[in-house]
Design a protein that fits this description.
With about 260 residues, this protein is α/β, with parallel strands linked by helices. The protein contains twelve helices and ten strands. The longest helix has 16 residues.
């Protein structure tokens, strides 16, 4: 709760936890306190929990609503892709690249000038592939700030990323948790990380190519390919069979029923 002389909990809450014996041994990670269960969204979350000393016996891997939507759309990929092609007047003979616009500036990591310079390179590199490019903005990003990038083969999606990512042939982004979405789908994922934000977070993923140079990014947008072994390894690591299928409400009901 205290890090570098900074208190990260309200004093009243901290005192109450201390008095009632519920103060976590490691407050930086859920599951190190008195809880009986800790829900992991996927196998990667499970791995990080164990790495931070959470007991394996406490962890239950279930998934989340986004995974259910992604899996549902994946089963209807061809029809949904056709709708996107028609909606944005894309070339049906070209591949569809879904690209999440990095939030370096919005997350307070870099100056606006540095952000826009890299975003221009990011979008230019995507456009140069000559494929259909559908950009996705995070809710905190303002459409008007990026509208000028819409031209030719590049459009900005009017629907959330979780509703369109299953239709993509490739996924491109900055460092983001949505990388897990594309990995669960099983499509090539290329990440641009010019500010070297990645701290080996996704080092275990075989289907993700992280590029920290302009040359590396430009070369891998179209050329990075997957093989069945890599996909299988990532799916096993993420526990895809648990998180992508089944009704989420039923999973929680079963968990609570067993507990009660």
């Amino acid at each position: 709760c205290i890090y570098k002389k900074t208190l990260y909990q309200e004093r009243e809450h901290l005192l109450a936890h201390k008095m009632f014996g519920s103060l976590s041994q490691n407050p930086w990670w859920n599951g190190n306190g008195l809880s009986d269960f800790i829900i992991a969204t996927n196998g990667f979350d499970r791995y990080k929990l164990i790495e931070n000393k959470v007991k394996k016996s406490k962890i239950v891997t279930i998934g989340n609503p986004e995974y259910q939507l992604i899996y549902k759309n994946l089963k209807n990929k061809n029809n949904l892709k056709k709708k996107i092609i028609n909606k944005y007047q894309f070339n049906p003979e070209k591949k569809l690249i879904i690209a999440a616009v990095p939030q370096w500036y919005e997350q307070g990591m870099v100056s606006l000038d540095d952000h826009l310079n890299e975003i221009k390179f990011y979008c230019d590199s995507l456009s140069n592939t000559q494929e259909n490019i559908l950009l996705s903005l995070h809710p905190r990003q303002i459409f008007e700030d990026y509208n000028h990038f819409q031209k030719g083969n590049m459009k900005i999606s009017k629907t959330p990323l979780s509703s369109i990512i299953s239709c993509g042939d490739r996924f491109v982004s900055g460092i983001s948790s949505t990388i897990i979405w594309s990995t669960l789908i099983g499509i090539p994922t290329v990440v641009y990380d010019p500010f070297k934000i990645n701290k080996n977070t996704f080092i275990k993923f075989k289907t993700v190519k992280i590029c920290q140079t302009k040359k590396g990014f430009s070369e891998n947008i179209s050329s990075f390919k997957l093989n069945k072994k890599s996909i299988t390894e990532d799916w096993k690591f993420l526990e895809r069979h648990k998180v992508m299928r089944g009704d989420l409400s039923s999973k929680y009901n079963d968990l609570l029923s067993n507990f009660l």
